[in-house]
Amino acid sequence: MAAIFSAASPPPPSSSGIDNHGLPRPPGRESPPPRRASGSLLPCLQLCQSVLQRNSRWIQCMICGLKEIRFAAILLHQPHHQGNMAFTGKYEFEGDENYEDFVKKIGLPSDKIEMGRNCKIVTEVVQNGNDFTWTQHFPGGHTTTNTFTIGKEADMETMGGKKFKATVKMEDGKIVADFPNYHHTAEICGGKLVETSTTSGVVYKRTSKRIA
């Protein structure tokens, strides 16, 4: 009698006590469950695809948000982030605080103390990135000009005419410099130039309004 099954097609599982190889099946041993057809995976794949499509817009928004945060972080560390021309302008003296105590602390001669009292100093600033030209025009035609680059040592001059070297820095939008006997900062607040000088616990503050 011809064989019903060929070598290429194994016989189907038997429900009798004989297994598929013609050998007695051990007691209590049932036939293995039939394999699930590959088509049964389709619902799972369709579900996953649906979830991905539903969340793809949210994922794209999250990626865009991360890119914007990264871009903002890069900008924060740029050397000109404080404003390429933030200080540029001409400012006229408007008022000051603790002038007398401060100038005496730094040893300014009495004649210069009187000259500087309520003096309508005009400060002219030209900023090009990190490069500055800082000029102070005093009544009577006297002018003091300091040219410097942020982070580099430069030759400077005090309002009393003393020459010195200093490295000017930019910290939180403020220009910061150490003069021979006082610490000086300058910043723009509400469109005004605000300069603060500190020595031995005495703080001198000068405010100038923008005129050009």
General shape = elongated
Order of helices and strands: HEHHEEEEEEEEEE
Number of strands: 11
Estimated radius of gyration: 41 Å
Overall average pLDDT: 77
Structural class: alpha+beta
Uncertain segments = 1-9, 69-82
Q: How would a textbook summarize the main sheet?
A: 9 strands, antiparallel
Range of strand content: 25-35%
Spatial strand sequence of the major β-sheet:
4-3-2-1-11-10-9-8-7
Task: Count up the helices.
Answer: 3
Distance between the termini: 114 Å
What does the secondary structure layout of this molecule look like, with pairings?
Layout: H1 42-76, E1 89-97, H2 99-105, H3 110-116, E2 122-128, E3 131-137, E4 143-149, E5 153-157, E6 163-167, E7 169-171, E8 174-179, E9 182-189, E10 192-199, E11 202-210
Antiparallel strand pairs: 1-2, 1-11, 2-3, 3-4, 5-6, 7-8, 8-9, 9-10, 10-11
Outline the structure in words.
With 212 residues, this protein is α+β, with helices and mostly antiparallel strands. The chain contains three helices and eleven strands. The strands form two sheets. It has a nine-stranded antiparallel sheet. A hairpin with a 2-residue loop joins strand 8 (174-179) and strand 9. The longest helix is centred in the N-terminal third of the chain and has 35 residues, at 42-76.
